[in-house]
C-alpha cells in the first residue's frame, strides 16, 4: 500500500502554514541544544500561552478546574504540560510524550589537561553514536557550572560568529594506513573524543603553560576555577544553526532532531488546542537515549507523582483513582523513525519503511530482532487512530526500523504501557539519525503536528 506524497496535496494556504511552522521549529532547535535549554524555552512558550507553574499552585493550596493550564518541571530537564478538560481526570488523558535529550559528548568532571603544548577537555559520549562522525567538525559547548555557593554560570561558547569553536582532531590521511584497517567502531576510540581547547601558553610558565593560560581565561571571562568543573554539566554539540536543506528548501538539516522534532510538534499541538473534554498532556522527558534512567528519565516517578498532585488539586485523589486515570490514558509516544535511504537500501524492507514526504509515521512495534524490548500496540487502538487521522485529513504511513535481523530501537512507549494505557509510537522520519547533523522533511513535520492536534482533540 503506497502512501501519497504530501507535497502534491497542498494548497497555497497550507504551504504558508507549513513554512511558518518549520521556521518556528528551526528557531526552537537553535535555542534548545540541551535539555535545560529546551525546558527553559518550553516554559517561556507555555507561560505565554497561559500555563501556570503547578508547584506554585500547590504551595498556595489552590485547586484546579476545567480550563486550567498547568506545567511541572523536574530538575530543569523534564517537563509535563496539562490542559484540564471537562471530564474527570479519572477518565484518563490524551498524552503526547517525546524526549528532548540527544546524542552528544559530555565533558567529564576532571576534564582539563595539557599534552604536547595543547590543552584538551576529556569527554564521555552520550547515547548511541558513530564516533568517527564527531571528528574535525566545528563544535560548541553548552551547559552550566554550579559553584559551591549555589551560583550558576551558564555557558554557551561557539554559536556566534565571533566566538571560537572547538573540535576533536583526527589523524591525517598520510599517516592513517593502520587506522583505516580498523573496523568503523574502532577507527576513533571513545577516549580519543577529547576536545581541542587551546594552545596559547602563559609566558614565563615552564610547566603546563597552555593549561594555565586556559584557566586564566576561564577565570577572567566566567569566574571559573578548575575545581568548578566538578559540579558542571557541559555538553558538546555541533556548532551552527538549523538550516533549510535541498535546492528546493523542502528539508531541514540540524543537530538534535531525534527527538526534538517530535518534542516541538507535540508542544506546538499542545499549545494550539484549547478547550477540551478529556485532559490533554504533553510530556517531554530526558535520558531516553541512555535507557530513560535516572530522576529525569521516563522510568522515574516524576510523571506519576505529578498526576497524583493534579488529582489532589482537582479534589479527585485516591490511590485507586490515580491507577484508573493512568490506565484510561491514551498516548502517542512521539519519537522519530528511520527514513528510507536508497543509498543504503539493503538495510530496509521497502514495503515497511518510512519515506520522506509521506506524512507522520506510526510504528506499531519497535524493539529489535524478534521485537525485543518492544511496545506492541493493540490493533484496536491503531484502528481508532486511523479513523481520527482520516477524518481530519492527516497523511500518515506505517513503518518499522529496518529489516527484521538488521537492527531496531526503543522509545519511552513500553514504560508508559506498564500502566495499562494504550500507547503507540508515532513521529517524523529522519535521515542521518544519531549523526551530528540529521535531516527531516518539512512536509512530515507539518503532517505530524496536524496529527498530534487531531489526537489531542479526538482520541
Characterise the protein shown here.
With 459 residues, this protein is of the alpha/beta class. It has two domains: 6-102 and 255-458, 3-Layer(aba) Sandwich (Aminopeptidase), CATH 3.40.630; 104-238, Aminopeptidase i, Domain 2. 28% of the residues lie in helices and 24% in strands. The chain has helices spanning 12-31, 35-48, 54-59, 184-187, 209-222, 257-272, 302-313, 319-327, 379-391, 413-417, 442-458, and strands at 52-53, 69-74, 78-83, 93-99, 104-115, 118-126, 139-146, 152-157, 195-198, 232-238, 243-245, 251-254, 279-285, 330-334, 337-338, 360-363, 367-368, 396-398, 408-409, 422-427, 429-431, 438-441. The longest helix has 20 residues, at 12-31. The chain is globular, with a radius of gyration of 23 Å. The mean pLDDT is 95.
Q: What is the averaged pLDDT score?
A: 95
N-to-C CA distance: 25 Å
Question: Which structural class best describes the helix and strand composition?
Answer: alpha/beta
DSSP helical segment count: 11
Largest sheet geometry: 9 strands, mixed
Total domains, how many? 2
How much helicity do the residues have?
25-40%
CATH architecture of the largest domain, by name, is 3-Layer(aba) Sandwich
Tell me the name of the CATH homologous superfamily of the largest domain: Zn peptidases
Q: In total, how many beta strands? A: 22
Strand percent estimate: 15-25%
Strand order of the largest sheet: 1-2-3-13-4-14-20-16-18
CATH fold description of the largest domain: Aminopeptidase
Which radius of gyration do the C-alpha atoms yield?
23 Å
Give the low-confidence spans. Answer: none
- The backbone outline, from C-alpha atoms, is globular
Q: Given this structure, which CATH class of the largest domain is correct? A: Alpha Beta
Amino acid at each position: 500500500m503506497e502512501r501519497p506524497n504530501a507535497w502534491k496535496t497542498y494548497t497555497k494556504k497550507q504551504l504558508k502554514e507549513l513554512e511558518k511552522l518549520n521556521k518556528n521549529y528551526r528557531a526552537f532547535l537553535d535555542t534548545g541544544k540541551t535539555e535545560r535549554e529546551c525546558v527553559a524555552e518550553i516554559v517561556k512558550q507555555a507561560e505565554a500561552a497561559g500555563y501556570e507553574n503547578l508547584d506554585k499552585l500547590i504551595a498556595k493550596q489552590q485547586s484546579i478546574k476545567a480550563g486550567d493550564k498547568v506545567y511541572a518541571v523536574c530538575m530543569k530537564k523534564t517537563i509535563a504540560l496539562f490542559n484540564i478538560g471537562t471530564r474527570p481526570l479519572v477518565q484518563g488523558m490524551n498524552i503526547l510524550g517525546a524526549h528532548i535529550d540527544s546524542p552528544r559528548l559530555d565533558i567529564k568532571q576532571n576534564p582539563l589537561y595539557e599534552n604536547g603544548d595543547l590543552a584538551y577537555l576529556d569527554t564521555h559520549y552520550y547515547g548511541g553514536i558513530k564516533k568517527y562522525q564527531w571528528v574535525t567538525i566545528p563544535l560548541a559547548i553548552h551547559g552550566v557550572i554550579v559553584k559551591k555557593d549555589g551560583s550558576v554560570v551558564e555557558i554557551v561558547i561557539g554559536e556566534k560568529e565571533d566566538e571560537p569553536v572547538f573540535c576533536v582532531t583526527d589523524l591525517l590521511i598520510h599517516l592513517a594506513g593502520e587506522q583505516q584497517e580498523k573496523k568503523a567502531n574502532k577507527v576513533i576510540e571513545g577516549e580519543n573524543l577529547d576536545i581541542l581547547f587551546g594552545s596559547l601558553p602563559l609566558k614565563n610558565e615552564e610547566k603546563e603553560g597552555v593549561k594555565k593560560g586556559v584557566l586564566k581565561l576561564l577565570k577572567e571571562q566566567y569566574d571559573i576555577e578548575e575545581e568548578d568543573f566538578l559540579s558542571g554539566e557541559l555538553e558538546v554539540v555541533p556548532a551552527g544553526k538549523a538550516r533549510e536543506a535541498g535546492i528546493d528548501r523542502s528539508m531541514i538539516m540540524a543537530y538534535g532532531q531525534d527527538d526534538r522534532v517530535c518534542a516541538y510538534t507535540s508542544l506546538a499541538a499542545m499549545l494550539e488546542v484549547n478547550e477540551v473534554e478529556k485532559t490533554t498532556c504533553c510530556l517531554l522527558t530526558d535520558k531516553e537515549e541512555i535507557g530513560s534512567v535516572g530522576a529525569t528519565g521516563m522510568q522515574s516517578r516524576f510523571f506519576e507523582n505529578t498526576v497524583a498532585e493534579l488529582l489532589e488539586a482537582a479534589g479527585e485523589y485516591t490511590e485507586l483513582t490515580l491507577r484508573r486515570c493512568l490506565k484510561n490514558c491514551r498516548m502517542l509516544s512521539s519519537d522519530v523513525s528511520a527514513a528510507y535511504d536508497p543509498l543504503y537500501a539493503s538495510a530496509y524492507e521497502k514495503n515497511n519503511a518510512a519515506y520522506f514526504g509521506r506524512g507522520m509515521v506510526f510504528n506499531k512495534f519497535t524493539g529489535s530482532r524478534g521485537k525485543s524490548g518492544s511496545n506492541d500496540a493493540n490493533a484496536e487502538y491503531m484502528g481508532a487512530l486511523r479513523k481520527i487521522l482520516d477524518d481530519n485529513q492527516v497523511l500518515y504511513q506505517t513503518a518499522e526500523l529496518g529489516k527484521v535481523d538488521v537492527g531496531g530501537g526503543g522509545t519511552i512507549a513500553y514504560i508508559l504501557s506498564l500502566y495499562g494505557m494504550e500507547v503507540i509510537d508515532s513521529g517524523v522520519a529522519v535521515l542521518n539519525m544519531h549523526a551530528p547533523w540529521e535531516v527531516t522533511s518539512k512536509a512530515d513535520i507539518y503532517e505530524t503536528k496536524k496529527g498530534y492536534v487531531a489526537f489531542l482533540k479526538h482520541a
